[in-house]
Amino acid sequence: MKVALIGMGSVGKGVAGVIARKDLGLTITGIADSTSGCVDPDGLDIANLLLNKSKNGCCGDRQISAMDVIKKADYDALIEVTPTNALTGEPAIGYIKTALLRKKHVVTSNKGPIALAYKELHALAHKNGVVLRYEATVAGAVPVMHTLEHGLAGNEILALYGVLNGTCNYILTRMADEGLTYEQALLEAREMGYAEADPTYDVQGIDAAIKLVILANTIWGNGVRLNDVDRTGIDLLTADALRLAEEEGCTIRLIAEAIPRKHILRVSPRILGKNHPLVVDGTLNALTLETDLAKEITLIGRGAGSTETASAIIGDLLFIKDRYARST
Fold first, then answer.
1. Region 5-29: what's the mean pLDDT?
2. Which of 45, 74, 75, 131 could join 41 via S-S bond, C-beta 3.0 to 4.6 A?
3. Residue 55 annotated among the catalytic residues of the structure
4. CATH topology identical between 2-140+307-327 and 151-302
């Protein structure tokens, strides 16, 4: 199956690297970063492109844009892994729409388009006889969407609770384990590469809230948006709060929760017993799904990282490849 790749940050490079070194039946025929692109219907030399990217900061011809690749390249599925814009979802929404209108499948790790325009994009994909897959938008390598779609088929999802941001979880783990202040733990998270220079998106619960919106719309189709989430971050938490929780045999985690029957859609720090299934350490993510048949199912795994996110993207691509192969 031929694929085009838009976005050559850590995730894009991770995906390209996996496709280059594994025999998955996938060929990259078009690729673009923010400043350049290249196209070859017979398949690109990915190893050489990755080398050029590391040396020169671009992957191809500066006269070729991402939209040029999307509009003109010969591919069956578009991989869209550009940075998330939580306010507008652009330019990714435009990229995805253009590919869908060309009757191309789309796989994305980009939370913005799925949180802001899922219903429209899903309908557009259906109208054009293709699929839109987005496993990588929530919990990295953890197969959340696959579990919902296949493993829990026939179940009614009654509620969900999750640790969906690894940066916050790392900070809270370090505050609890070592008695660090929030500022000390944040500095350490930056030094480890887990937190951005501006950590607002993570520590104020925005990232977790976007993932909660994606999950809610996927499961219940209720059209919720980021502004519908009652959100409190961890940036005002003190070491004393963690110490007091510790004295009660508990700890604190940033929990995203959706309980439709109670009209709850919330991200906030919660006190949990240390043996609670959502008390995971470091940058791990965890998600508990409450169902009518299977009761409670908890998924735990790595929620970030180029290789981990690539795992989810490759899984979606191979789903499409198998489906595409059967239909031709």
1. 95
2. 74
3. no
4. no
DSSP state of 149: I
Place of tokens 């599925």: 77
Q: Domain 151-302 belongs to what topology?
A: Dihydrodipicolinate Reductase; domain 2 (3.30.360)
pTM over 0.85: yes
Convert the pLDDT of each residue in 65-103 to its tens digit: 999 999 999 999 999 999 999 889 999 999 999 999 999
Is 4 in contact with 30 (CB distance < 8 Å)? yes
Alpha helices per DSSP H over 79-205: 92-101, 111-127, 144-146, 166-178, 182-191, 200-203
Handedness of CA 1, 308, 135, 40 (dihedral sign): negative
Domain ranges of the chain: 2-140+307-327, 151-302
Max CA pair span of the chain = 63
Name the active-site residue from 13, 104, 111, 211.
211
Burial 238-253 (b: 16+ CB within 10 A, else e): ebebbeebeeeebbbb
